[in-house]
Amino acid sequence: MRDIQNRTDLKVIVELFYEKLLSDKKINHFFEKFRDPKTLAEHLDILVDFWDNIVFYSGTYQRNAMASHLMLHRGHPMKPEHFDTWLNHLSAAIDKNFQGDNCHILKTRALSIATVMRIKINELDQNS
Ligand code: HEM
After folding, report:
1. What does DSSP assign to residue 100?
2. Residue-range domains of the chain with CATH
3. CB of 56 closer than 6 A to ligand 1?
4. Which pLDDT belongs to residue 97?
5. What backbone torsions phi and psi does residue 2 show, to the nearest 5 degrees?
6. Residue 55, ligand 1, Cβ within 6 A
7. Are 111 and 86 in contact (CB under 8 A)?
8. pTM for the full model?
9. Which UniProt key words apply to this protein (predicted)?
10. For residues 35 and 106, what is the distance between their CA atoms, to the nearest angstrom?
11. C-beta of 31 in contact with ligand 1 (< 6 A)
């Protein structure tokens, strides 16, 4: 198996990742709007930009992912088990087709961003 090399590879990963998220009852209530193919396609393009920026320093993602999730949490509370499920599906989607340093970078960054997100959500809950 080869390593993640470009945006096409990242697209393969996010497509499989979202198939997994949408078919898992433990987490799919967050993702219902992405059952619409056009909404999903637009979102996956944003995710490819996000990971392209992290793995290949492309400068393609200039939005605020943290703020989106803090807003999401108000309507759909994000619990520790949701983060575990999310991370497990991401790892599985990578491992299906790829292995190597870039896979490791992507997984490590996902875990560290998820950890910061959980801390910020916790702070938000304590201050409300
Ligand atoms: C429990 C875990 C998570 C859930 C349930 C979740 C769910 C979602 C949902 C529903 C959206 C769409 C928000 C919207 O457009 O209204 C979204 C966007 C996004 N998520 Fe997550 N997420 C989780 C964790 C993460 C983590 C850990 C990362 C990064 C490592 C991440 C990266 C992103 C990015 C980049 C977007 C696009 C934000 C934008 O529009 O710029 N997510 N997420």
Report:
1. S
2. 7-126 (1.10.490.10)
3. no
4. 96
5. -105, 170
6. no
7. no
8. 0.97
9. Heme, Iron, Metal-binding, Transport
10. 25
11. yes
